[in-house]
Design brief:
Elements (H helix, E strand, L loop, with lengths): L2 H14 L3 E3 L11 E3 L1 H20 L4 E4 L7 H6 L2 H4 L1 E6 L6 E3 H27 L5 H7 L1 H22 L3 H10 L16 E4 L3 E3 L9 E3 L5 H5 L2 H7 L6 E10 L14 E11 L4 H17 L8 E5 L9 E9 L2 E10 L3 H10 L5 E3 L4 E3 L2 E8 H12 E5 L5 E5 L10 E5 L4 H14 L5 E3 L5 H11 L3 E5 L3 H4 L1 E6 L5 E5 H11 L2 H6 L3
Parallel strand pairs: 3-9, 19-20, 19-21
Antiparallel strand pairs: 1-2, 4-5, 4-6, 7-8, 9-10, 10-16, 11-12, 12-13, 13-16, 14-15, 17-18, 21-22, 22-23
The structure holds glycyl-adenosine-5'-phosphate.
The site of glycyl-adenosine-5'-phosphate has 19 residues, from strand 10, strand 13, strand 16 and helix 13.
Length: about 525
């Protein structure tokens, strides 16, 4: 099965089992907007809790807030979003379709990469065990032709984007002979900048004065509350403010499922430090965030740092944590050293002094900021795509199993009477009533036990508890573990302890020390 097919199957699976639905589906959906179903919301809440606890509970000097989506419009002037939060767009005159110019070029580069990889595959087949991939890539003329082209296109694209040279960007699309995938023509308009913020009107005013924006990032709600939190919480530098919340961007190229959406959630933390100490903290947060990711068991090899070579004007260091999604390594989280830019800009635009008095130095300064910013939906996608497993069983059947880390699994225990009989149901219901205070449980008595196990595998439930006729005599049940499918007989009073140990958030958080 190709990665593409696997990804399509995963998307279908998440809909069938109540993880993610296309938004407004009965009205044919709304592009790049998705709803979380009964399983998806549980999974998302568990990820949020893991992040919140890792930030706010484990760090005595980090507190959490919940600021509003609507904020004073001047905030977005101060932050630079009104003037510079743009994507370069180009239209095809025949299909009337609009594209992001840089994405057309990225797709072109991906095709060149695919061509080069095909040559490498051919080489592998031809030379067998003696194949040296690195040497082949460095010497084979067909591969070299493609890689040279890739390098040239990348260099021109980066320069055009950095210089904000939209004419050069269009010329590159023409020179690469990129055609519209719909009309097949190369009849392109000029490239224009397009602001990604959604705007709306507040109150009864319909002119510009009433225009407000749906926040494109949660970070600004933290910056404008810096003084409130610092003073009311008597916070001492270094300290952090964390927040989870919705953000909105009018993404033009919205694809790859929940990877790029118009309405999404961010988990952001701004860590305020003494000027001059930012690099130490930048390194600390890089390592700490990577440890947070790897602790949930998606495989260390599936993460990598991508340091930014070209920095935004307000940053003095920046890196992305990329994850190996089904469509390749892509950004999952950004870690940025944002200097004192944001607090200074808000001081300038609001006219209010935003400074910190350091009692140790007996001096005031504008703190520097290290930001960690992770997409919640992208984390859900990372977790879903690595959990999704299709296994061939010994009896020739297939099972689809979501191998979630037990802490993140939407349902922790399924309680299943072997057959639908009053005496079994009564015991099972009693077990359920006991467990449901601590764990999210499901009770199921319809269909054969085999079918019910398959359904629980499909939603990733770590444990199934089966009550049978022996239970009525020995007060024990069959406990089935999801990944190994091993079944063992355990006394009813032991169930809670076994499950609690496996789904313990504490044990997961302890790995971050
Ligand atoms: N405050 C910094 C900031 O917003 P960003 O790199 O634009 O930085 C941070 O966004 C994270 O938010 C990204 O790493 C990504 O995980 C997530 N994100 C950004 N745009 C997104 C979108 N359209 N859909 C889903 N997640 C998105």
């Amino acid at each position: 099965m190709t990665q593409d097919e696997l990804f399509k199957n995963l998307i279908a699976h998440t809909k069938e089992y109540g993880f993610i639905f296309p938004s407004s589906e009965i009205y044919d959906g709304l592009s790049a907007v998705y709803d979380y179903g009964q399983m998806g919301s549980e999974l998302k809440n568990n990820i949020k809790k893991y992040w919140w606890d890792a930030m706010v509970k484990l760090h005595e000097n980090i507190v959490g807030i919940d600021s509003c989506i609507f904020m004073h419009p001047k905030i977005w002037k101060a932050s630079g979003h009104v003037d510079a939060f743009n994507d370069p767009l180009i239209d095809n005159k025949d299909s009337k379709k609009r594209y992001r110019a840089d994405v057309l070029l990225e797709d072109y580069i991906a095709k060149l990469e695919a061509k080069a990889n095909k040559e490498v595959e051919k080489g592998k087949k031809r030379f067998g065990d003696s194949f040296n991939e690195q040497q082949f890539r460095e010497t084979n003329p067909n591969v070299l032709r493609e890689t040279t082209k890739i390098q040239q296109v990348r260099e021109r694209m980066t320069k055009a984007l950095n210089d904000n040279d939209l004419t050069a960007l269009r010329q590159l699309i023409i020179d690469c002979e990129i055609a519209d995938p719909i009309s097949g023509t190369k009849n392109w308009t000029d490239v224009r900048q397009f602001n990604l913020m959604f705007s709306t009107q507040v109150g009864s005013v319909s002119d510009d004065a009433g225009t407000i924006y749906l926040r494109p990032e949660t970070a600004q709600g933290i910056f404008v509350n810096f003084l409130n939190v610092q003073k009311s919480g008597r916070m001492k530098i270094p300290f952090g403010i964390a927040q989870i919340g919705k953000a909105f961007r009018n993404e033009i190229v919205a694809r790859q499922f929940i990877f790029r959406m118009r309405e999404f959630e961010q988990m952001e933390m701004q860590f305020f430090v003494k000027p001059g100490e930012e690099m130490k903290w930048f390194e600390y947060w890089k390592q700490h965030r990577l440890a947070w990711h790897t602790a949930i068991g998606l495989g260390k090899e599936n993460y990598r740092f991508h340091d930014h070579e070209k920095l935004a004007h307000y940053a003095n260091a920046a890196t992305d944590i990329e994850f190996n999604f089904p469509f390749g390594f892509k950004e999952l989280e950004g870690i940025h050293s944002r200097t004192d830019y944001d607090l200074r800009r808000h001081q300038e635009f609001s006219g209010k002094k935003i400074q910190y008095f350091d009692p140790e130095d007996n001096a005031s300064y504008t703190p520097y900021d290290i930001e960690t910013s992770i997409g919640l939906d992208r984390t859900v996608l990372a977790v879903l795509s690595s959990a999704y497993n299709v296994e061939k069983l010994e009896n020739g059947e297939e099972r689809v199993v979501m191998k979630f880390h037990p802490v993140l699994a939407p349902v922790k225990v399924a309680v299943l009477p072997l057959v639908k009989k009053d005496e079994l149901s009564a015991v099972a219901q009693k077990i359920m009533d006991e467990l449901k205070f601590d764990f999210n449980c499901q009770y199921e008595e319809k269909d054969t036990i085999g079918k019910r196990y398959r359904r629980q595998d499909a939603i990733g439930t770590p444990f199934c508890v089966t009550v049978d006729f022996d239970t009525l005599n020995d007060n024990a049940v069959t406990l089935r573990e999801r990944d190994s499918m091993k079944q063992e007989r355990v006394p009813i009073e032991k169930i809670h302890e076994i499950v609690a140990q496996k789904v313990s958030m504490k044990r997961l958080l302890e790995q971050l020390k």
